[in-house]
Amino acid sequence: MEPEREGTERHPRKVRESRQAPNKLVGAAEAMKAGWDLEESQPEAKGMSQLHFYRFYLEFGCLRKAFRHKFRLPPPSSDFLADVVGLQTEQRAGDLPKTMEGPLPSNAKAAINLQDDPIIQKYGSKKVGLTRCLLTKEEMRTFHFPLQGFPDCENFLLTKCNGSIADNSPLFGLDCEMCLTSKGRELTRISLVAEGGCCVMDELVKPENKILDYLTSFSGITKKILNPVTTKLKDVQRQLKALLPPDAVLVGHSLDLDLRALKMIHPYVIDTSLLYVREQGRRFKLKFLAKVILGKDIQCPDRLGHDATEDARTILELARYFLKHGPKKVLEQARVEIPLFPFSIVQFSFKAFSPVLTEEMNKRMRIKWTEISTVYAGPFSKNCNLRALKRLFKSFGPVQSMTFVLETRQPHLCIQYEVLEAAQLAIESLDGILVDGICIKVQRPVTELTLDCDTLVNELEGDSENQGSIYLSGVSETFKEQLLQEPRLFLGLEAVILPKDLKSGKQKKYCFLKFKSFGSAQQALNILTGKDWKLKGRHALTPRHLHAWLRGLPPESTRLPGLRVVPPPFEQEALQTLKLDHPKIAAWRWSRKIGKLYNSLCPGTLCLILLPGTKSTHGSLSGLGLMGIKEEEESAGPGLCS
Question: Which of 458, 367, 373, 358 is nearest to 419 (CA)?
Answer without folding.
Answer: 373
